[in-house]
Amino acid sequence: MNRVVLIGRLTKDPELSFIPGSGKAVVKFVLAVDRRFSTSGQKEADFIPIVVWGKQAEATANYVSKGKLIGVSGRIQTRSYEAKDGTRRYVTEVIADEVQFLERADGPQEINNNNPINYENEITPIDDGDIPF
């Protein structure tokens, strides 16, 4: 069984691209996942590369940005390639099949104290004599 579930924050904005020929969307980003225990007493994190394909990739690119908290589930995949200098490079990444946005894309709504909302026109007065208790 190869299954991974992670919750963490994006280290930078996702990078969306499209595969030439097929036009299939792919987005790549790095997820900072806090470690449960720390040896030094300070918070530590692992930085895990994530790859998302298809419509989920487009939604991820459109609705999340650096620092946002997301949940990812998928599988671990390793691959290798030959670098320009002729050395063999190995990559381990999570291929996500599900991404959940755990924070709003536009951040928390700010309260504007200069223009408070007036609900008085939308409140219907109730006659206390109509209440049965």
From TrEMBL:
GO terms for molecular function: DNA binding. Gene3D superfamilies: Nucleic acid-binding proteins (2.40.50.140). It holds the Pfam family SSB. InterPro entries: NA-bd_OB-fold (IPR012340), Primosome_PriB/ssb (IPR000424), ssDNA-bd (IPR011344). SUPFAM superfamilies: Nucleic acid-binding proteins. The keyword DNA-binding applies. Keywords: DNA-binding. Homotetramer. NCBIfam families: ssb (TIGR00621). This is Single-stranded DNA-binding protein.
